[in-house]
From TrEMBL:
The chain holds residues 1 to 335 of 552 of the full protein. The lineage of its organism: Archaea, Methanobacteriati, Methanobacteriota, Stenosarchaea group, Halobacteria. This is Probable bifunctional tRNA threonylcarbamoyladenosine biosynthesis protein. One of its GO terms (molecular function) is kinase activity. It comes from the Archaea. It comes from Halogeometricum salsisoli. Its EC number is 2.3.1.234, 2.7.11.1.
Length: 335
């Protein structure tokens, strides 16, 4: 089966071709890079409008080169990220996906972006039923499968983890995205103490970010604040991930989301898993940050399960939670 997918929930205008027989995932992405400040929804949507036709064309060219029957042939379905994300961006992606599916006369598959972050880890690891830590820009949560759905075992009570780091870096005048700059600066710094906020299975970043901004304004070296931020925020995520493993009795952890590119976060999770005899898997970076590859891989499984959406019912949902998704593609697997 070959499936084309389109992703554009926030900053990455991305299209992909996935061949479920060869396992090949071809991804073409064009990131939106704000001149200043963070992601501006209107500008991001304008970027989607400009970039989506080009990334889709590149993927269709690839499909034509690798297929037997010429352009557009041998594509069995079109998947798209239906949410969660920025409404103006999602609407452009939805329109592009509907148009493409109708042009190719193939079924349309509406994919939850956060479930795709999880499933690409499950696909890459071959794990049976892992807990997933989604550490992305706009989200931070732990997911575990139970009784036909991915349940949210714990989540941020305010901002997503990447957005929290980005807000701090905006405060110090660094360009977007801030996460990689925090990682780089932290390597040069000494640990600076910041508030640690975990409440049961949930956690909060807003107080830490205010304290980090105050520390910087009070003259604490930015490298030290970055070191404190990484150690504190990632220790919180690691604690909750460990509790999720313990509660579910699972010994498999996968990582999802753009913040998962951070080496310190990965090493903390790896060490925790090693200490409790669990297995840890982090997908390669191109599958961690937003990308259409993960939408294509999950889209193919949904299509195989007959989980398609008629065009009139295919509206996008900026607040689409992972636990709203009936998991149709795991039939016959253990819960
Ligand atoms: P979501 O997937 O929830 O819709 P999103 O679209 O904003 O979120 P992702 O592509 O998953 O984003 O992640 C982008 C985030 O990852 C940004 O906030 C960025 O600062 C952060 N990030 C990227 N690289 C690193 C890194 N090395 N360390 C920490 N954070 C990072």
């Amino acid at each position: 089966m070959r499936i084309v997918a389109i992703e554009g929930t926030a900053w990455a205008a991305s299209a992909a071709l996935f061949d479920s027989e060869t396992g090949e995932v071809f991804i073409e992405s064009d990131p939106y890079e704000p001149d200043s400040g963070g992601i501006h929804p209107r500008e991001a949507a304008e970027h989607m409008g400009d970039a989506i036709p080009d990334v889709v064309s590149a993927v269709l060219d690839r499909a034509a080169e690798t297929g037997d029957n010429g352009a557009g042939a041998e594509i069995d379905g079109v998947a798209f990220s239906r949410g969660p994300g920025l409404g103006p961006c999602l609407r452009i992606v939805g329109t592009a996906a509907r148009a493409l599916a109708q042009t190719l006369d193939v079924p349309l598959v509406g994919v939850n972006h956060m479930v795709a972050h999880l499933e690409i880890g499950r696909y890459g690891s071959g794990f049976d039923s892992p807990v997933c830590l989604n550490a992305s820009g706009a989200n931070a949560h732990l997911l575990g499968y139970h009784n036909g759905r991915y349940r949210v075992l714990g989540e941020t009570m305010d901002t997503g983890v990447g957005n929290a780091l980005d807000k701090f870096t905006r405060h110090v005048g660094w360009t977007h995205p801030g996460g990689p700059k925090v990682e780089e600066a932290a390597a040069e710094g000494e640990y600076h103490d910041l508030p640690y906020v975990v409440k049961g299975m949930d956690f909060s970043f807003s107080g830490i970010m205010s304290a980090a901004k105050d520390a910087y304004d009070d003259g604490v070296p930015v490298e030290d604040v970055c070191r404190g931020l990484q150690e504190t925020v990632f220790a919180m995520l690691t604690e909750v991930a460990e509790r999720a493993l313990s509660l579910t009795g699972t010994d498999e952890l996968v990582l999802g989301g753009g913040v998962g590119q951070n080496r310190r976060l990965r090493s903390m999770l790896e060490e925790m898993c090693e200490q409790r005899g669990a297995e840890f898997y982090a997908p390669e970076p191109r599958f961690l940050r937003d990308n259409a590859g993960m939408i294509a891989v999950l889209g193919a499984r949904m299509l195989e399960a007959g989980d398609t959406v008629p065009v009139p019912d295919s509206s996008v949902d900026p607040n689409f939670r992972p636990d709203q998704v009936p998991v149709t593609w795991r039939d016959g697997e253990e819960s």
